[in-house]
Structures are given as structure tokens and as C-alpha cells.
Amino acid sequence: MAVEFRVLGGVEACADGHRLDLGPARQQRVLAVLLLEAGQVVTADALVDRVWGEHAPQRARPTLYSYLSRLRNALRTPGQDALIARRSGGYVLTVAATDADLHRFRALSARARATAHAGDEPAAARLFEEALANWQGELCPGMDTPWFNSRREAAQVERLATVLDWSDLQLRRGIHTELVSVLAPLAEDNPLDERLAGQLMLALYRGGRPADALNHYQELRRRLVEELGIDPAPPLRGLHQQILISDPRLAPPARDTAPAPAPATTTQTTTTHPRQLPAPPPLLAGRDSELVGLDKLLAPQGEPHGGTVLIAVICGTGGVGKTSLALRWAHGWQERFPDGQLFADLQGFTLSGEPADPYAVMRGFLEALGADPGSLPATPQAQAALYRSLTAGRRLLIVLDNARDTDQVVPLLPGSPSCTVLITSRHRLPGLAASHGAAQLTLETLDPAEARDLLVRRLGSDRIAAEPGAATELLRHCAGLPIAISVLAARLTTDPMLTLIALAAELREAATPLDALATGEPNGDMRIVFASSYLALDADSARVFRQFAQAPGADIGLPAAASLTGLPLPRLRTRLHRLQAHHLVQERVPGRFTCHDLLRAYALEMTEAVAPAGEAEAALTRVLDHYAHTAYEADRLLLPHRDPLAPATPTDGTRLEEFTDADRATAWFASEHTVLTAAVNHAVRTGHDAQAWRMAWAITTFLARRAWWVDVTAVHSTALAAAVRLGDPAAQAESRRALAWACTETGRFAEAHQELAHALALAERHGDLLSAAHTHLALGWQYEREGDNAAALRHDRSAVEYFTSAGNLPGRARALNAVAWDHTQLGDHEASVRRCQEALVIQRELGDERGRAGTWDTLGYAYHRLGEHARAVDCYQHSLDLNRALGHRYNEAETLVHLSQAHCATEAVESARAALHEALRIYLDIHALNPEVNQVRALLRDLGGPPAPESS
Question: pTM for the full model?
């Protein structure tokens, strides 16, 4: 029995026609947040902030957990699992789009637009009306927090956009009588909306009320002049003139009376499916034939598509509009892909660093498809297999933007013919055509008529007609590149006093070559185009634009940008808004900014040409300090008993981010890890070795907990080279231990031994007791994994001695636990118990829960071997509880195996079997090495019962 939800006009849930009791008002707010974010994980912190706003009580979290528990029970219906589920990092509500009014409204609106684009206007009108029928009142009325208020305002904007699209459609169909009663009240609420005003004026005129239409125009013009100091835009002024002369072109077309086709059925979609497409371009001129071409290239050829994945590549020069074309096509055909749309910028031609790692992109896709980030496979091959499994049989669109080459794309191709892939690249990717049958569409620059059409759409026909010669000259400079036309149009629209003639003169006077971006003709030099916007900036905005070229990653968040520029956030936002208005930076997602690679190249040249000495170096140092010091503080929350680094002082002007708990620190790493790994490489390339090494050190804990061993290897290979140049033996040893850790976890034991041998030699050569202790401990673990327990004991005893000499209590306790484990593996269980008890005393005093988890497991193992099985079970349970709280899934599985053996000893066979099945599930989820998996399978076979599953 499905539960139906309503957030428009009130928050309600109904099952089988009966309203469910959703509890008190704040409990309803919790449900409303999860409904509005349906399918997305919402952290507990975010829920508290959104439900209580700025007035959260001290015990908000316990109250929140109580609300969530009650809601889960309230929404549980016969035959249906709980709709609210706990996920890594937060909570998620799973609901079908058809079961929630707001999501139903959005889905129907999208289908209506796509249907209109396909030419079936009667069916589109019905879909628009069906969508609007869901709107029974404002979003979540009475829920007054900043978050709800902003979402309410955004929802009203969505509704208005849908009404206006429907109204445009009806006017095109010759239907206008019923529009006046709908548009008039909207015009009162939105008195400065010129699109709405134009629709109302046309409906009034066609309804025989031209005087009312003209009066509405005059009232709008008066308000625009008084409140904004501007006149109506050219399209509305043109409509006004047409009404004055009763232009016959305003007459309604013959009303379509043909019977409407039956509405098409579509597969039901749920909001758990990814919707990653960025917003479609507002204007796309001269690409109708290309859109038709894509329709043909990607038209489904039956079910499945002839047994192959449909792949198309849009190729062309930088700035020609490949991404805009791809997004317009993708948005127009969303209904063909009800299971979702994935999008990634592969950064194939960025000037700031290497192209995006396809496996890093794949991990993002896996999370979007529902995989638990904490249990992703360790190796790229296993991740690729999981990706193909999660996409199999699903109707997905995958858009891969700005690809470098075929090798970068191939890992991201799904295996199922139900999927469609759309790629953009400056290269033709002939290898992809040969190996995977990819079709190609080459995007040329706009011809003169198309370029003029785009400029007319941006500026209005009146303005172009008033200065036709200047418009032609401007378009010659743009050389048919849509990005160049957009930059010039932004300059003209943001400065009402600037004329086309004046701008053309500025372009002539600023003419200098931009060799890397030249289009091949003297009048098509992109440097001239960018200079026209750059030279119009105030000094502070120009400086921020230059500094953005120093950002180490593909994008940058506001706090990091504040360090990059040395500006306080209010001033920085003002400068960024100005740069956005000139199309010199983009805010692709809220709070994260990026700069087109062509513009970044120009910014770098401006830095060399006009920036004061030291400006670029200071900006780069500040932003690297921001990442290095913020990452360090975040890691201290993830692993508080890790040996700290020597204190370092950030550069003046660096603004660090602060975190209150480990959850917030983890969330920061999750959003910034791609930039951090890029920053490590960028720091090394620019001679900032110390910051590169500190960033690599700080991100290691996060990467290891995600089992992203490929990334650990990459950052520490770079960090090791930096440490060698710094002449820092302790840093070299630390990176070699990290590399050994990654090697061991991926089964490369010989390489791990080589790294640890180098690390130990460094420590001994320089008399570094602490480094030697850590390396002996790593060697002990390495030998234990290989089954040489005597060698493991030698190294772990050495680690105890070195940690004791260095006065390092957390390390001493860890080493004592390792010695205890070695003892019990060698049969000396009494000695093992003594060492465990000694370690637990230290760990309790330190509050070292990670250490205690391991020690409790060892102690349980020792008691089990001594025949004290009840004590063993109790110890294992302590270890399980701690490992689950810490999210250490490998250790959890290992302890479950030990627990099963204690249960067997007491003949609790069912409990033993349950523990082994849970351990196997975890091992399979995290793609553990074969020996661990095979051991559990063998133990299950010995117990009898149902066969063990082959995969998770």
C-alpha cells in the first residue's frame, strides 16, 4: 500500500484514503525536509538547522531522533518497508514521484515541456494543466525557518515558470479567453515581470480589450521607471507598438480542433534516481539542425538498442557551445530516461591541472546511484564492475562533458544497452568510434546569420537595428563563437550607457593577440573579446578575476576563495556577483565557483602583464595554506589520537574553516577531496612542497576510510617526492608507510615490504624513535597478514620499546595490542590477556575508542582460546559496538568472524551462522581480499545450512 504525500497547501500523508497522524508541528517539519529532499541523504545537522533554524535547543539531536523514529512507524504500511532509512551520513526518504504532489508537479512539468518541444502541443497543454492541478496552496505553509522560506520562494518561482510556459503554449494555439483570469492576479503579485506582462497584454488584446492591454503597459512602464530607473525591454516595447497599430500579426492563429492524441505512458520514476543535469542554456541560437541530428544519432532502435549502448560525441573547438547543445538536448528528452541523468565535467582541457580521474568521477556516479560511500570497492576494476551492475537494465542518460580522450571515457561507459551516453570533447575521439561505435556530431562556429540571431536574442532587435554597423563589427570579433558573443552581450546588458559603437571602438583599441585561443583569422581573436570585459572592471574585481586563475582545482568554494583573494566574505560576494554579471566566472552549484578555461588563460596572461609583483604568488600561497590547515584540523577530528604534525602558521589573509564535530569534518572532505588531490599536484608543480605534503598527510585518514587506495597511492607518491626535495626524513617515512598501507590493502605485499624497509632505514639513520616505532608496528601488521607471527612479534615488541622511549602513550597502547595478538597466535594466551589489559588501561584514560575496539577484539580472542567463552563473547560485543560507531567495516567483519567461533564453542550454532553471514556480507560489500572471503565461506560450509551468497 503506497503512501501519498502533500506539501502544497499543507503537509499531509495518506494511505488507503486515510490521513496518517504525523505528530506535532516540528515532527511534521522533519518529514517536510525529507520530502523536499526525497532520495537525497540529509545529515542530522542539516535537519536540525532546517527544522529549528537559528533557535535550535541544546537537545535538538535527541529530539530529532525521536521524531524520526515516530515518523518511521507512522509511515510504515502493510507489505512496505520503512520509507525513512538511515544511510551513511544521514537519513533518506524514498518516495515515488507520483506519490508526492510537488515531485509530481515537477515531473509533469518536465514532460509537458519535452512534449511541447517534440511538437505535440495539445498533449503538452494537458500535461501542463495536470501539473498545475497539483498546486493546492503554498509550499509547507506556517513552517517559518530560513530554509523553508527560501524553498517556498523557489517553489513559487517554479510554479510561475510553469504557468508562463503553459500560457505561451496556449497563446500559440490560439487559446486566450481563459488566460486573463489566470494571468491578472499573477501580474498583481509580480508587477515587474515583463514576460508575464506581455502574455497578459496579448490575451487582453485578443479578447477585445486593447485599452486594458495598453493601460497595463503604461502602469508597468511607470513602475519600472520609478523603482528601477529603466524602460521596458525591446520585446515588450515592440508588443506595445503592435497593439497601438492593431498589427494583424497579433491575431490569434486558428484554434487547433484536431483530436488530441492519447497521453503517452511513461515508466514511473522515483526521486531516488539521480538528476545531475545542470540548468539548460537560456538561449541557444542556430543549433536546430544539430538538435535534429542528435535526435537521429540517439534515437532508440527498439528494446534494447540493437544490443549496444547508444553513444554520441559532440566535438568542436573550445567555446563553440558543445556543453550548451548537450544540455539542451538532454533536458528536452528527460522523459526517455526515467531512471535518471548523470553528469560530470571531465576537465579534459583545463589549464590548471590534469584531466579528471575517470575513477574519481565513477565514485561520484556510484554514490549518486545509491552505493554506500563507506563500502565502495577498493580497486578501480571492482568499482567499474559495480558501476556496470548498478546501471544494468536502467534507462539512464550519462553526459560526459569536456572529455580529453578515449581512455578517459571508456571506464565510464555502462554495459547495458538501456543506457545512452552523450559526450562533448574538443577531440574527435576516433578510438571511441572504432571500439564502441560512437557516432559523432561536429559542431562548427555559428554562421553570420546565426551569430546575429544570438546577439538579437540577447540584446533585442531594436538595439541591433539602431547600430547595425557596430553590431556587424562586434560579431566579426566573436568569430562565430557563442561564448564570445555571450561575453560581449553581458557587457552591453549590464551597462545601459554603453553603446555598440563605443564597445566596437574599445575592441579596436585593445587589439592584441591571444595566440593560444586564436580562431585562425585576425578578426577572431578571443583576447580582444575578453579584454573588452576585463578592462571594464573596477580594480578590485579585476584583481579577483586574475587571482581566480591561481585556484588549484576545477572549482572553488567561498571560504577557499576568501583565502585566495584575501577578502572578507561580504566584499568577495560583491566582486563575484560582478564577475558573474560579466560572464567571467560561473556559479554552477550554490557556493562553488568556476572559471571557463579560455577565461582562465586570459586571466593568467593578465597576471603576467599587469598584476603587481607577488600578487599571484601571495594568492596561491594563501589558498594552499587554506586547504592544508583546514584539512589538518578536519583530520584531527577524524583521528584525534594520531600523532600531530609540527605547528605551522598560515599566511596572513588566510581564512580557515572550522568544524564542530567529526561528521562536519567528514562532509567537508567529501565535498573537497577532488580539489585537495588536485591541490597536492598543483602545489608540487608550483614549488610549494611543504603544503603539498601536509595536504597529502591530512587527507589520508579520509581516503583510507573510504578505501580509496588508488588515491592514497597517487597523493603519497607525489608527497614522497616533495618530502625528498624538502630533505625531511620523517615526512618521507610517513609517505612510504602510507604507500605500504595501500599496497597491503590491494594485495601487493612485496611492494609494501619495500616501502617499509625504506621507511625503517630512514628512521634508524636519523635516530627518529617515533618514526621507527610506527614503521615496526606497520611491519608487524604486514608480517601478521602474511602468516609469519614470530616476525610480527619481533617487530611489535620493537614498536612497544620505541613508543615507550618516545613517551607516546597512544602508540604504546596500539603496539601492546599488536603484541597481545601475536602472543595468542603463537599460543601464549595468558600473556595476550596481560598485554590487552595493560593496553586498555591506557586507552580508557586517553578516550581512544579506535584503539579500544581493536584491543577488545584481541582480548576476546585470547579468552576464547583459554576456554572462557562467555568472557570472549562479551569482549567481542564491546569491539563490535565500537567498530560500528566508528564505521570501521573491515574490523567489524573480522570481529564477527571471531564472535562466530566463540558461539560455536558454546554450541550456539544459529548465532554463529548469523555472525558469519553478516561478516561475509560486509566483506563482499567492501570487496575484501579473497583469503578473508574464502575463510568465511569455509566456516559456513562447516556449519551446514543454506549456501553462502556469491556476491552482495
Answer: 0.57
